[in-house]
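Lecture notes, unit on protein representations.

Consider one protein chain, 85 amino acids long.
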Amino acid sequence: MSSLSVRLVTRSGELFSGQAGFVSLPTTEGSMGILPGHLPLLATITAGTVKVGAKENDPGAKEFEVVPGFVSVDEDRVTIVVDGL
């Protein structure tokens, strides 16, 4: 089973780097879920909760409260850049 390589970065440095099966985040178009194999994407993030877990609805998912920023998805690499938490 393939996975996502996820990085969450703020001005002060990297907050998270690791593998995941699912990422959920708030965008200007609404809540978005990203799974392995997602099409390339560049989107604006709004303030809210980013969840990084092994699968959808993972009760052990890591959660980060973020301020606006952006997300880039390319070949199972998810890069989330925000001004802060």
